[in-house]
Amino acid sequence: MSQSNAAHDSHDHPGEGAALDVRADLHHQVEHFCHMLSEQGPMSITFVHNNTLLGLQKSHFEVAIKEAERFLGGRGYLTSEAYRSHFSKGRITLEGLERALRERKVEGLDDTVVAGNGQSVSKLQVLQAHLVYGIDAMAPADLRFRALERGETQRLREDLSAETRKRLLAAAAKDLATRLEAIGRSRTMSDWLQELTGLDLRRTLLASVNGHLSGSNSFAAAVEPNLRALGIPEAQWRTYFDCIDSHLGPLQGSDSQRAEKREIWLREEAALVGSLAQRHFGVAGTLQALGNHFREQPERYAALTLWRGTQRLLGIGDALGASDVSHLQDRNPDATDVDALSAKIQ
Fold first, then answer.
1. Torsion angle defined by CA atoms of residues 66, 70, 71 and 73, in that order, rounded to the nearest 10 degrees
2. Which end of the chain has fewer CB atoms at under 10 Å, N or C?
3. Residues 132-158: pLDDT tens digits?
């Protein structure tokens, strides 16, 4: 057929020309992508005699794997769960992970990211923990469900090794004993509850002292019932006053005014500690009751101290707690607070 006849036929049948263009483009695309496909696949699951990524061999290995996953729909790696299973069985080790991270020339692996109580955590340790356990950000709704419905902030992870679990529980038991020993000697009950709940009890108590102070020199102190309500041993009453005075600051005025401030503090402290201990832990607000509660539930104490330590490190309040952080009254966590907490954690 001459060019004039072909042009004449194309002019008479314009749809045929468009179809030819589509077919030509399709042929080109098929030919192009065929270069990414190997002529032969693996002979078996365990024996490979041909590079199945031959068309991507000029790319960096990880880039080639990613492109092959996108184009071929396969998987270039095992799942994270599979690798973590291998780690739990000893096929992958922390030393191996460190070697791999250093081979990738990850910057700042030896930099300290957290330090406290004579210990430090490096960037390498954080990355290893993430690879082994999966430290992934979660949606606010999932955070609420796992914390409030499943109680995951009150227990240690089930996939912790026996050695790590033992070490954490031992450290928690030692910390608990130290905290209990300090009550009445260098700390008040409200100091300890402030650490356990993440609430600012000290601010509330100081506001109560200033708000209820009568200024009368004839005030009669009635401290004994409140000291007993807090479970403070009688032998430590005098030193407990010193702990209160350290929070009240320089005390001016007469002895009766000093006694009035102490009594107001003790009265408000006994009521506040009592209500918070019952609301958060289901026990009376005494030194003995709280001590026994956590001795009987060492895992809960270990998880709680880790959770509170994380919040202090990040400078965030507890939007998931049973008490409102502003007025310390009972509340149900609302979505806005949880959203804010999740955003700060991420």
1. 110
2. N
3. 988 777 777 787 788 878 888 889 988
